From TrEMBL:
Record-level Gene Ontology MF annotations: aldehyde dehydrogenase (NAD+) activity
Classification via Pfam families: Aldedh
Organism whose genome encodes this protein: Streptomyces antimycoticus
Protein's UniProt name: aldehyde dehydrogenase (NAD(+))
Catalytic activity reported: an aldehyde + NAD(+) + H2O = a carboxylate + NADH + 2 H(+)
Domain (Aldehyde dehydrogenase): residue spans on this chain: 13-478
PROSITE patterns: ALDEHYDE_DEHYDR_CYS, ALDEHYDE_DEHYDR_GLU
Amino acid sequence: MITYDRLFIGGSWVEPSNPQLLDIASPHDQSVVGRVAQAQPADIDRAVAAARDSFEAGEWRLAPPAERIAALRRFNALREQNAEKIAHLISLENGSAGWFTRAGQPGLTRQANAYLKAAEEFAWEETLQPSDPTSPVRSVVRREAIGVVAAVIPWNSPFSSATSKIIPALVAGNSVVLKVSPENSLSMGFLAELLEQVGLPEGVISVLPADRETSEYLVSHRDVDKIAFTGSTRAGRRIAAIAGEQFKRVSLELGGKSAAIILPDADIEKAVAGLKFGSLLNNGESCIAQTRILAPRSRYEEVVAALKELVESLKVGDPNDSDTFIGPMIRPDQQERVRNYIQLGIEEGARLVAGGPQIPEGLEKGNYVTPTVFADVDNAMRIAQEEIFGPVLVVIAYDDEDDAVRIANDSEYGLSGGVWSSDEEHALAVARRVRTGTITVNGASVAFDGPFGGFKASGIGREYGAVGLGTYTEYKTITV
């Protein structure tokens, strides 16, 4: 049993305003695996005040960038040293399969290194040459910290979401209140332990698990200067409204319903092997999952048969078992949501190829669903338009390349996607036509030095690398 009976506020563990602890239930069998304090508005007030005081005092924001970079390198080294424990905690509380939580650890290192390399090369201050060489005026352009950042993250990939925000925000000199989901109280409690060891100035960082109501209190707080949010599009709209009313800076990484375009010349076996990870990573509870599979009519049944074989071969079960590929959904309500979408797909007239709404045999105690594939799906169906956030794939036929691009773009979302072809340059040309923030060719992995974010209802702003770092700074121009 893991217990955190205090809250990490401003770099110290303090008594919560509400001493009642929240039970953390295992998604696998509903056993209680931890008990953790949850933040209330009074705790938010304390954390924001500490952040404001630290920012105004200036010890962190006025430190040379090299010092801030060195501190975040220490944090990254601590995280690397504890990668196995982090992976275990996320599987324990989230139900994410062990292969996924372990495989994600090197990605966290690449993500952090990309930010820190960008910070080393960042134009924190530069002098512009005047456009008129006879002018006696020169401009000095600075990039300075924004202030107090409220970083709000979802439950599905907690460490990745947390570090994608706190590393650039802190490197830029901001003070941060990280609001995490109650479901992630164990892994995020350990994150706070690691941050405590880094030795940041008092008040610079807080890590608070809290419910939605307390989250809204945080993002509405008058002493918060920027909101960095990852989560649902619905919540993002509410946060954008609050930010607009209060003129807060805001970045939003929201939902997705990404398309994988399999071109007629693609190697179907390789494409489907890649989609095993591109479409079903993290139990399908991933905003970047490519869950709309677009197949040419000439090879449609071949693609459907290959996906059926793939999905039916996947081991569903205890996330701690080494051969498990799909674990449970995080909560019973999420399990019910996914099962309802599967039933909806049947009612909409899609052809059920694999899976179904039934709970896998022998796993009734957990939040399990059966991985499912639908064929004969029209892109107008709800199962093709709405984010299900579970291991449910829909296969949509297209007539030609223009039709494939049209279908891929026929979505309110635009976060991720993929193109599969034996001709890489042709695939790249198709990828350029898809209205999405990130798209891969033949299953390429994410490059953390490039910006990540979404078009349309998938968000505002970008994360990763120099572009992501820049979203935590303000421009100041000094003319001399």
